């Protein structure tokens, strides 16, 4: 099967972002924290994307920022998907008190305002990337849990799952061989977006103080730093915003491709 | 009793217990936070004596357990008390602000949900062709903008370039319904931009997922048009994930829009909660927290019920 | 006075040119800044106020937790609301001069230990009755006695006795204080009926406008009080204070005409607003300053050589340019500038000197471990960026300064006045004595640098009772030098008030003592048709 052009573009761009993130130290033209120019200079030969609110080179900060942004967003999304999907499927297949217990626990977690959760975490745990990733992963996994449980509940009553049960297959076999492939499409679509939400969520947490320590930076945080010039034609904030948008589209192009592949796993038309 | 009615009754009963649990969690959480209301109010300029006096006057010297149970018993009798910080009646303040929250969420939801599902259906119908790519591209771009950037963009275009609307959206008693609609126009536009993509992409993905099933092939062979197939056969079978995501987004519109509230100075519940958390004003935080929790729990019950009602296999379990 | 000057003054009062521009052009015509200012004030008074209309102010810093109790006011929104419905005994007017409000006369005994305030007759409250000397005493008592919950408690502690006789209020002090009347201008000390003891949050006072609608942290609508005593003020029929916390939204609102005046224009966008003829930017150099504070009793900041190394390694010019957009002036490591009476402007300005900083650092014998500066976005506008610039300039001098970002939430209780090295700000005070006694006296409640110097304390008490202004100035100069060379305060910059008003707003006279004409903008301005 030939790979569609959109998927090629998506893979290429995603790969390019990863490459930039991995080799930031060698690519960036200026250090991340030195004020090399004037405030909010426009793009020029010297500063390709201009300078930020205190005169640092935006391109260099974007390149260094890619490391933190992509790493944290990726790991926390994987964590939230691993946890959310596993417990969601478990709740759907086992039913009974396991379902009730897990579902109500998730209701409780979703119901407590995340501001309070974040502030409490902030006051009792040390501030570092691992804590940040854990907090984001756990908070987000509640959404994934609800989605994967809803999808899986529909699947568990299908004839082929009944048949597997009657054959006496193990729980894990049913989850991984029957439910997962059939639930993958909505989950892949969700992953594409959750990743972007995670990118934006880092900057929200940074603002609360639970986040990236300067001089390190993330793209959402860069947008925030430069936001005041936005409606007066200072494009500094648009550069990181555009980076997020391009990353979003690239990742979702890949997700769309995976999505069309997974639909065909089931052996329907066009498989 | 019909199984679904029984389920709803059970879930509501569990929901009430959950609300109580939420109040305990919030109480413990706020107690764990450093600083107290007296310090937060007087800030940088207070003397230690004034602080001690204020603490005494606010009853902050009582043991934590006493304060929690005093609050709980009063709340169970419908008395939410007064805010520690400014002595205003909590029920009254929350009443008007919750109204504003629902108004904003309602306006945004009424536009965003049908629009997202409609666009999702179109994208699924033209899967892989240009309408699909256009819809996906535009919605992905809007969702990747942080909310405040979307808000500034809208302010720039609709108050400066084309001065149609006002940048400050606060609503107050005495405004007509039309005035209020005009006031919230900008935040509604921003919120629609923010929630559209998530619901649209889930609709598309869920529809595409069921399009591979045998019964869809049957429907196609029957000679139905692609849109008829999607509308009559695919959508009902894809409703569970769609409704879950719709509900997550509706809940977000109610409880999570504080950034938009701040940018447009819209006086709703999110900003109110944030202010009072910062001041450790426990009675207010409890009251708002319980309302938000009730919204979440209620919407989740709704989603589960719709999921069951629309799936014949779940509706009539073997 | 030339015709041209008259013309310019008329333009300025009508709001066609800004005060700053006027002073600049007047200077070109050979006039001093002070003379230009007084000429403008005369012209503003002479210009005919226009009656009527609704005047709206967009103010930053409102929260739904705000109270109407003047004792609890701590940010710009409640400040502005309170200053519009209430009045103090005296105000700090232009040029730092005392202006009589509820008091019509102030006098003291020869050694400044007893102060007499004569209360103006017939000032009415919004709900009837007139201000009596007893009300004044009750108000002061509510804010100062041992059971007070007021933010002003520390300000007027030195009062030993208060007496009301007829229309006279007599305050007897523990020790001489030549500045006492200025303390009575504090924004907490609004005169309330019977001191406001029974109902402190009523929002009822004797000001020119009375509250009609009030939603905390959102909007307060007030209408003109018909029986207000001062006919030279309160021209608009009604006024509104809107709480707009987002910088961009507030600026967009004034451009769209939704509000007529605003606080805190982001200095960085001032030049971007220059093309807009509807909005005039008003600047006033006030006593407010942004600071980095080291606790002198905590290692490693208990070493004065290290403190000096850090003071030498701040690039003040860069901070003023990049953090204040040039709308301010460099600080000199003591909290006083030209906005204060008796300021000694001959003390040399401290500059960035990496070599000297490195030398001091070497002398301090610091072990090379990171020196951590704690900072949060709310410490002052641009605090995180300022800290990063400080870090870069210090690192360039070989000092291992590191920045630690703290959450906004709880910053003022967990970090400020607790951490050994953090960012903060001061709004300033009307007189030097009050600034020093609030934060630099050994025993001050808010001695956030843990600065203890016997000589300094002695000078301060002596200066407070000194009535010879020249001697007093000498004492203040000596104190400034002690603080500059041994204190824990790094004061890199004083921030100007940068505010905006619509061109149609008349009667605007910048007052550096406080934001929005020291809180009186809504009462003193009017709307030209």
Report what the structure shows.
The complex is a heterotrimer of chains A (271), B (318) and C (529). Chain A has 271 residues and is mostly helical. Chain A is built from 10 helices and no strands. Chain A has helices spanning 5-22, 24-27, 58-94, 96-111, 114-124, 129-156, 159-167, 171-208, 219-225, 238-265. The longest helix of chain A is centred in the C-terminal third of the chain and has 38 residues, at 171-208. Chain A is globular, with a radius of gyration of 22 Å. Chain B has 2 domains: 1-85 and 279-318, no CATH class; 96-278, MetI-like fold (Orthogonal Bundle). The longest helix of chain B has 36 residues, at 90-125. With 318 residues, chain B is mostly helical. The model of chain B has no long low-confidence stretch (mean pLDDT 89). Chain C is of the alpha+beta class. In chain C, the strands form 6 sheets. In chain C, strands 8-9-10-1-11-19-12 form a 7-stranded mixed β-sheet, with helices on both faces. The longest helix of chain C is centred in the C-terminal third of the chain and has 18 residues, at 469-486. The chains are: A mainly alpha (271), B mainly alpha (318), C alpha+beta (529). At the A-B interface, helix 4, helix 5, helix 6, helix 8 and helix 9 of A face helix 1, helix 6, helix 7, helix 9 and helix 12 of B.
Task: Offer a quick outline of the entry.
Chain B is mostly helical and about 325 residues long.
Number of helices of chain B: 16
The CATH superfamily of the largest domain in chain B is known as: MetI-like
Backbone structural class of chain A: mainly alpha
CATH architecture descriptor text of the largest domain in chain B: Orthogonal Bundle
What's the end-to-end separation of chain B, in Å?
A: 17 Å
Largest contact between chains = A-B, 61 and 74 residues
Q: What is the CATH superfamily classification of chain A?
A: MetI-like
Strand content of chain B: under 5%
Helical stretch count of chain A? 10
Write down the overall geometry of chain B: globular
Rg of chain A, Cα atoms, Å:
22 Å
pLDDT < 50 stretches of chain A: 267-271
List its traits:
heterotrimer; B: 318 residues; mainly alpha; MetI-like fold; 2 domains; 16 helices; 77% helix; C: 529 residues; alpha+beta; D-Maltodextrin-Binding Protein, domain 2; Dipeptide-binding Protein, domain 1; seven-stranded mixed β-sheet; four-stranded antiparallel β-sheet; 20% strand; globular
